[in-house]
Each structure stands twice: as structure tokens, then as C-alpha cells.
């Protein structure tokens, strides 16, 4: 799962985010420790900590002193909203801009999307 496409700490953060969104990590559940991530992915514990701390800084995880990191109440919905915004900015806006260049109106674009959707 870890590759060279982006920094490892970002990949660790994304793995945790994906587990939160999918429900593998429920609200108030404990996240694997930095040492567990480090051992499993054969990375430096500081790298794993950087990914986890990023999620703490974003308000998605919190620390229980001496116990570990836990998922914040409301984290799944917060992540979904962030990802929806990212999706709109990264995919929908450019799609609409290209459609406009090609003279494709919204109705035609919606029809094209529906025609190419998995059933």
C-alpha cells in the first residue's frame, strides 16, 4: 500500500482517513500506534507519527495521554465534507470548464455522465 507516489507520512494519514470514512475506525475508537504502523510498513516511527499528528492538527484524532490516539466524534462526516470539496475542485470544476470549451451544456454533460456510469 505504501509507494513512491507521495510522501509516506501523507500516505499513512490517508490510510487512517480511509479507515475512518469506511467505518473500519469508528468514532472514539483507538488508532494503531506509530510503532504498529512503523513495524507493519517498515518505516521510521517518526514518519508514522508525522502522519498521525497531521490528523490531530486537522481535528480528526485526539490523544489520550498514556493510552494512544482516538478518532474524534464527527470525524467521518468532516472527512466526507472535505473530500467532497476536494472532489468538486479537482474533478468537477475542470470537467465543467472543458465541457464549456467544447460547447457541451449541463444537460448534455449530465446525460454523458449517466451514460458512462456503472449500472
TrEMBL record:
Organism: Glutamicibacter uratoxydans
Pfam families with a match to the protein in the record: GntR
Residue ranges occupied by any HTH gntR-type domain in the UniProt entry: 6-74
Keywords per UniProt: DNA-binding, Transcription, Transcription regulation
Protein name, per record: GntR family transcriptional regulator
PANTHER family xrefs: GNTR-FAMILY TRANSCRIPTIONAL REGULATOR, HTH-TYPE TRANSCRIPTIONAL REPRESSOR YTRA
Entry keyword Ribonucleoprotein: no
GO molecular function, one term: DNA-binding transcription factor activity
Claim: Transcription is one of the keywords in the record: yes
